[in-house]
């Protein structure tokens, strides 16, 4: 259970309401331990989630901190903003050159979140802090999903920046190839010596698995992420006259059981599911079977993308 706007709350994991008393909470915890323990045939992932949930709300002090919007370890209190927008220019930790970057990662998702949050709250209702933890947790899943994706896109952008000057990255690239209800964009395009990658950053608030080259899982609600990514990449390929060598779906570390997991090929590009922390290594090493780009070709692909890319 990772800390995300769309993750199940500790109360939901334990199967109780947010107003449950201490005795009810303790009984629920013990019941869920029995039901999920691997030794009795339970799911190890659910068993771990139950333990994490208890750490967050199992004591009066931890529960009070969580209910205020923080955690006991982080010293959360009134006004805590675990999902607030990052500073426009995060402070640099070293002087090494970063990857060249264009666009605003997470910008479209955050903007949509803010607009729809105000619509959901209602006309004339004043929202002091749209990132207040209690407000976010009470919002509909679609709203929380937008914020979760914005955070995921921002995390990916930070990882990609660490690749160095040999890589070029475009964020929030406009495309008309999105499916019904999907964002009209490709989250990231990455060009470097190991290839040209179309990258989508996703957070569904739970574990996803793979089957026959596509992602599956209860949290997906019928979505087909690999197909959607392929369609977006195809639209960019046509507009810029370039050929992607890799298509990556990046998810939080505990949302994937293995990483990188190669899913197959789509129009010649190797598709893979990648955990967030493994992304820089995948970019530097490349994907098995994916073509590399170098020399004059690298310069030509960058020039074509610079001329064709537009942003949402």
From TrEMBL:
The record's section on CDD domains has: DnaJ (cd06257)
Q: Which SUPFAM superfamilies match?
A: Chaperone J-domain
Instruction: Enumerate the spans annotated as NERD domain.
Output: 148-259
Q: Matching Gene3D superfamilies, A to Z?
A: DnaJ domain
The chain positions of domain J read 9-70
Where is the stretch described as Disordered?
64-104
What's one Pfam family here? NERD
Kindly provide the name given to this protein in its UniProt entry: DnaJ domain-containing protein
